[in-house]
């Protein structure tokens, strides 16, 4: 792979960090540069660009966003000692002496 092709590929990755090696291969093919996907990955790794999967975030609907904002505004002036008595849970169902069915 030529230095020019590497620069072109790195610039594309900087513009769109979520681009796949397959898409990079297609875009380089439009410029008459034939490169395998594994070569693309190796070149990106050598240049400090590693493939990572972004962290999943919970999807919030407009209704949930509005409810959270309303809750935050209502509890804005609550003193810090109030929150020490609140039990924060992840809403997991737990049954001590029965089978969870």
Automatic annotation (TrEMBL):
It comes from the Eukaryota. One of its GO terms (biological process) is DNA transposition. Residues 6-77 form the Transposase Tc1-like domain. GO terms for molecular function: DNA binding. It holds the Pfam family HTH_Tnp_Tc3_2. This is Transposase Tc1-like domain-containing protein. It comes from Pogonophryne albipinna.
